[in-house]
Amino acid sequence: MTEIRAAGGVAWRPTPDGVEVCLVHRPRYGDWSLPKGKLEPAEPPLAAAVREVAEETDVRAVPQVRLPSARYRSEGRPKVVDYWSMRAVAEGGFQPGTEVDEVRWLAVDDAIRLVSYPHDAEVLAAFAALPRATGTVALVRHAHAGKRGTWSGPDTARPLDDEGRAQAAALADLLPLLRPHRLLSASPRRCVQTLDPTARRLDLPIEVCGDLDEPGPGQQRDERALALAARLLELGGTDGQVAVCSQGKVIPGALEQLSGRVGEDFTTPKGGGWLLVFTADGLLAAERL
Hints:
CATH class of the largest domain: Alpha Beta
Number of strands: 13
CATH topology of the largest domain: Rossmann fold
Domain Nudix hydrolase: 2-128
Helix content: 25-40%
Organism: Micromonospora krabiensis
Number of domains: 2
Number of helices: 7
Mean pLDDT: 94
GO biological process, one term: AMP biosynthetic process
InterPro entries: His_Pase_superF_clade-1 (IPR013078), His_PPase_superfam (IPR029033), NUDIX_hydrolase-like_dom_sf (IPR015797), NUDIX_hydrolase_CS (IPR020084), NUDIX_hydrolase_dom (IPR000086), Nudix_hydrolase_domain (IPR051325)
Radius of gyration: 20 Å
Shape: elongated
GO molecular function, one term: bis(5'-nucleosyl)-tetraphosphatase (asymmetrical) activity
């Protein structure tokens, strides 16, 4: 039986006493729950989560940490709902509708007592246990650029191919959801081109940084991975959002260094990437985009 896929979020905003989170009341079910909804065809769960929170609450929020997924049965079918913590950055004028007729901002403990379902309470408890994030970094590997052996010019000048341009366009639908205020790229042309559609959409410049590059002649992979890890750690402490495009030979080593999870598979496909969340103590979470 095909499972139902949905996504949502714990949208939060700071208060003088801590944080408040957003709950919705659904008149059809007479319940209080976290905002969520079904994925559209081929829609990434992260994109669906941001969209559903905005549609149900009129809150624009930036996703941060992946929270536990909820699994239960709905209309006789298994259902999986993926959740993220989301920092609210803008609120519109909520208008009651047939799906959601009331929105409440509550302290987390009050929200846990109000929600109608244990799985929502578990997600909220996981959110409450999180330390404060200092920044998020979207780390992507450059998109597809053909094969090195078929390119006659310098490898740093190898451009994206048709598949890579499609991947870069797909990233331009995803990365703006994280609201980056800076875009940084490794030196090769294919890395810069991977961020080009996102840069045009956000009207941001692309900063080219050599410390995001994979090893050149005479350089060691471990040294380059350490350099990338140091730069990501620096960017993660900026109290904002940044998008970075790097290369496949250094991303796994950098993530292993930051996470301390030796031997974990951090291999990243071309055009793929990671959502990295940092705290004052270092890397808090690394989830595939």
